[in-house]
Amino acid sequence: MPKRQHVVIIGGGITGLTAAFYLQQEKEKGLPVTYTLIEASSRLGGKIKTIHREGFVIERGPDSYLGRKKSMTRLIEQAGLADKLVNNETGQAYVMSGGALHRIPEGAVMGVPTKVGPFIKTKLFSPAGKARAALDLVLPRREEADTDISVGHFFRRRLGDQVVENLIEPLLSGIYAGDIDRLSLQSTFPQFQDVEKKSRSLILGMKQNIPKPSDRPGAYGKKKGQFLTLSSGLESLVERIEEQLEPESIWKNKKVSGVAREEAGRYRIDLEDGTNTHADAVILASPYSVTKHLLPEQLRVDGFHATPSTSVATVAMAFPASALKTDINGTGFVISRKEPTTITACTWTHRKWPHTTPEGMVLLRCYVGRANNQDIVFESDEMILKTVLKDLNIIMDIAAEPEFYYVSRWIQSMPQYEVNHKQQWERLQANLSEHFPGVYAAGASYEGVGLPDCVASAEKAVMHIVKNLRSAH
């Protein structure tokens, strides 16, 4: 019989869970592998948390994922929850600027205008701002197009300050909760760099990339939204996966203090309670802020994630429909950072995800916390709610108190991919490959913060381990 290989997975968020799930599948197919999943807290799933209350389905962490990134759908299907998948309802989204809600112009792709009419008519930009954006049509490609720059620098050069501040920044910074003038273009939105290289003009290039109506899902009926979630709540995926793992392979409430290389290429994983375990391969599925302290100093990369991850909070509020004096027909809004509001965005969850809300009720989810001002996140629940309701009253004329609410804080949870992040990540991988072969870093700290990115990262680590195992036998 070939010798069994043991894999230790550190971190039980979606990345670590996915790795354990796929290793379990390989084991069931006959691969000589065992695994231990070590999680510091009392539960698996990381930021994925769902509350079911009085007919509401409330997500405290991520509420959905981008459907075109197939890794998450693949995981859901293999876990046996494909029948629970639902697309978001499409509808008008808004941006708040100059004290008013403006429709995001039709044809704007992540803020880049591709239709002339709606762009000319919008009051989001002055005539001078629109003229500056039109310069994109004649501006040359950036010299040194393969070098990394900040997202803000890239878009300001092509479209000007107004389009960036009133549309692009509110849309894009929400994804990473970061400062777009520090975020890496290559590591966050490389598609825009590719469009400029290929088409020169962002406007023309994005226009060419829009699929024809006949290519879109539901082209002859109602257009499907591009996001997916589970009608049973995303935590139902966590529960389903945990059910399919071996209970003795899951260690909760155990904190890892270090990973050391031993003779014969094995690794010792030390725990804070003074015990240890051993592994032939290790998947580091914890945030880099934790991971770097588990590794010898010479393996760490100078400057990598030098800026601490951003802290954000969300407030989910349930109201009777009568509380909304003006229920705007749309799915939500984002806010320009020049506005004097505390909230940065608001999702009208009852419209975007109708399955989450009982008839006659309304569910709003607001976001607070900016890269340059996170103080509100650390206030009391009552103070956060009071501040959010004050903003909502001004924006949407809501004077009522919610029937109930949940404040969810995610402290230092949004990793900041700053300029040259990709090169530093490659250096970390090279260090691990050379000095700690068989140890893989995976998760939101490296190649994308979305759920599908984390799942794909876990898939890649498992694939390396399986490939090495098969070649060894």
Characterise the protein shown here.
By secondary structure, this protein is α/β, with parallel strands linked by helices. Helix content is 33%, strand content 22%. The protein has 15 helices and 20 strands. The protein has helices at 14-28, 70-79, 116-121, 127-134, 151-159, 161-176, 185-188, 190-199, 202-209, 235-244, 288-291, 349-352, 381-396, 421-435, 451-472; strands at residues 5-10, 33-38, 50-53, 56-59, 65-66, 85-87, 93-97, 100-103, 227-230, 250-251, 256-261, 267-271, 276-279, 281-284, 310-320, 332-335, 343-348, 361-368, 404-414, 439-441. It has a 7-stranded mixed β-sheet with strand order 8-7-16-17-18-15-19. Helix 1 (14-28) runs parallel beside helix 10 (235-244), helix 2 (70-79) packs across helix 15 and helix 5 runs antiparallel to helix 6 (161-176). The termini are close together. Residues 214-221 have low confidence and may be disordered.
Summarize the structure.
By secondary structure, the protein is α/β, with parallel strands linked by helices. It contains 15 helices and 20 strands.
Topology (elements, then pairings):
Blueprint: E1 5-10, H1 14-28, E2 33-38, E3 50-53, E4 56-59, E5 65-66, H2 70-79, E6 85-87, E7 93-97, E8 100-103, H3 116-121, H4 127-134, H5 151-159, H6 161-176, H7 185-188, H8 190-199, H9 202-209, E9 227-230, H10 235-244, E10 250-251, E11 256-261, E12 267-271, E13 276-279, E14 281-284, H11 288-291, E15 310-320, E16 332-335, E17 343-348, H12 349-352, E18 361-368, H13 381-396, E19 404-414, H14 421-435, E20 439-441, H15 451-472
Parallel strand pairs: 1-2, 1-14, 2-10, 7-16, 14-20
Antiparallel strand pairs: 3-4, 5-9, 6-9, 7-8, 11-12, 12-13, 15-18, 15-19, 16-17, 17-18
Helix pairs in contact: 1-10, 1-15, 2-15, 5-6, 8-9
